[in-house]
Structure formats: C-alpha cells, structure tokens
Amino acid sequence: MELFETIDKRFSNRKFLDKQISSDDLKRILQAGMQAPVGRGKYEDMHITVIQDKDFLNEISDLTDRSVFYNAPTLVIISAKDDGHGLNKENSACVAMNMLLAATALKLGSIYLNLVIGLIKENKNILNKLNLPEGFVPIVGIGLGYADGSHIVKHSIDVNYI
Ligand SMILES: Cc1cc2nc3c(=O)[nH]c(=O)nc-3n(C[C@H](O)[C@H](O)[C@H](O)COP(=O)(O)O)c2cc1C
After folding, report:
1. Among 67, 75, 108, 112, which residue carries the largest CB count within 10 Å?
2. What residues in the chain have per-residue pLDDT under 70?
C-alpha cells in the first residue's frame, strides 16, 4: 500500500474478528516498530512484549468491565526504561505509530491503547507476568488483528502559518 493511502486508511479498530494474525505479519509489524526514531538512538532502553496467549489476554480483560483492548487477538505492550531525559512516552509513541501504519499497510486492524497500560500497572500480578527486564515500565499498548469493517474519517488540527 502506498504511504499516503496507508496514513489515510489507518483508524482505531474496536471490533476484531476471532482470527490471529500470521507470524510473518507480526514480524513485519515489530520490525517497523524497531525502525522508528528513538531519542539519542537508545534502542536498548525500549522493550516490546507480544501477548497472544488467550488465558493471559482473558486475565487482563477480566480486570475490568470496560473493554480495554477490544478482544484484539494480539496485544503488544511497548515498555521503556527511564533514560533520564524524560523521552519514554515520545519514544514509545514513535515505535507504536510505525506499528500502526505497518498493520494498516498489511490490511490489519489496529488500535493505540492507553487505558490497558494503567490497568496493567495497577495489577502487580499481571505486571510481573509481563516479565519485563529490570527497570522497564509499560508505556503503550497496541491491539492488532483482523478488523470487522473499516472506516475512514478525515481529522483536522488547526494550523497557523507565520
Ligand atoms: C495517546 C493515545 C491514547 C489512546 N488510548 C486509547 C484507549 O485507551 N482506548 C481507545 O479505545 N482508544 C485510544 N486511543 C485512540 C484514539 O481515541 C483515536 O486515535 C482517536 O479518537 C482518533 O481516531 P482514529 O484513530 O480512528 O483516527 C488513543 C490514542 C492515542 C494517540
């Protein structure tokens, strides 16, 4: 898919089919995330966790009545280590954005998730099960899977020219 078409077609998918993505697609999405810019090139301060285990996904979704990852069959958690420059969120968002666009280019549904991160951080048992290396904190979640439908909404942000 051409880049601008991919950008236009990306949307936050909140209805996933009960079908797992292929390992090849997952690999390409992870690789896209790894190609993202990261402050001072500190890729060693970033970590990616892929959760596809249904029992573990159910354990996370059972933490609340709210739908926090919309039954996405693949939940990716991007974590970062405090780099002393306060760039964890920015770095994680850059990695996430590349993954969302890669998923769209592969005709998969995707969504950027923040709520699930708060839930995971509040629950020590789940947090421990992420098995993150020492000092790493979850920052961004991404839901991946096959979308049940599509929609294109043109967003707009005010611009001023000087
Ligand atoms: C930082 C950030 C956090 C978000 N957290 C959530 C979330 O926890 N749950 C959710 O359903 N959508 C979440 N979203 C998706 C936004 O609601 C969505 O991107 C926005 O409404 C624009 O819609 P679109 O992505 O379909 O273009 C988040 C997006 C961003 C960038």
Report:
1. 75
2. none
